[in-house]
Amino acid sequence: MTRRAPLPPSRVELAVRWTRITFYGWSLGFALVLAFLALSGLVGLGNPQFPVGLGMGVGVGLLQRRVVAERTGTGTGWLGASALGMTAPFLARDAARLLHLQLPHPLAGSIVVGGLLVGLLQWRLLRLDPGRGAGWFVASLAGWALGGSTVVLNERVFPKMPGIVGALMYIGVILTGGILLGATTGLILPRTLEACSPRSP
Length: 201
What we know:
The chain is mainly α. 78% of the residues lie in helices and 0% in strands. The chain has one domain. α1 packs across α6, α2 packs antiparallel against α3 and α5 packs antiparallel against α6. The longest helix is centred in the N-terminal third of the chain and has 32 residues.
């Protein structure tokens, strides 16, 4: 008896899966940020910011790449685009600090620029036409900005609580950023991938 090929996932199923995977990647990225910051302290780098962008870019890109690779065969490139795009503005800020230059909006600005760079690199990777690319730029920029806003909310809006409860609340708010990023980019992801021709891995 001939087996039928599995039906492709619907747009809603793909968006839900993407949101879930992005949340897991964001959570992994948060853990990687802590690890990279600890490592940078051990090797005497002081208090650089690039581990923040590197950790989040690697964590999110690492888990998202499998979903993208299933359709386009660009999994490895997706990881690199996410890591490079999100690390670059943080690295630039570290360089500016060494040159005694003061840049505005330290965290929010880096995340917004990083989201734009990630979207640009991913657009080039997927070889989208300008129309599709513009939509992905906006989704990437908005998604990363919304995800990063959880840090600002923790620092400036929500009351600080001492002890374990306060720490758990802080982490919980941060981790919701993965849902925001996944849901925002997931809205346009199905149509974006449909515009790409399949490639060999």
